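A note on notation is needed here, since sequence and fold are reported together in a single record. The reader may check this reading against the record printed directly beneath this paragraph.
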Amino acid sequence: MNILGRRVVLRALEEEDAPLLHAWANEPEIWQRLGGWHFPTSLAATRTWIAAQSASPADRRFAITLGGELLGTANLVEIDWKNRHAHHGMMIGPVARRGQGIGTDTIMAIMRHAFDELGFERLDSSIIEHNEPSRRAYCDRCGWVLEGRQRRWFHRQGRFWDRLIIGVTRDDYHALLERTRYWD
């Protein structure tokens, strides 16, 4: 089953995605905008990572595609099935594809899947403070709320940056749909 946005299709990661995911995993410009630790990785490690993705019921990762072109990854991880929430993140790889609404459509597709299909109550995420495009996509366009700040959390570009904690509830999502008629 694929997850459909207005334009994007989120599908399972496949072995043939490995070369491009490997290239992105080794691209410093991409990882400056994302949380977590990043080290150079091999193509073999990327293939192993893809193969392991279906093993955990608490983590789901998807390929973001448009017209069959792989553009990035999205996820629902740290899924808490009892309390009905998860952490969400995404990455758009090609620089030329950013700023075209792909991230917004991906976030909307993930929210529809999480809230309307899986019955989740909330999603959370975090953004490195200098990543203004992500903050605008989540908070300005997709209805997420800034819920907190962890000071000096990420070390990037020779300095420390705050971690912005954001979240969205099922009610926030449905109120956004009432205002924007996104899926109409």
Remarks:
- DSSP finds six helices and eight strands in the chain.
- The mean pLDDT is 92.
- Residues 84 and 120 are 4 Å apart (CA to CA).
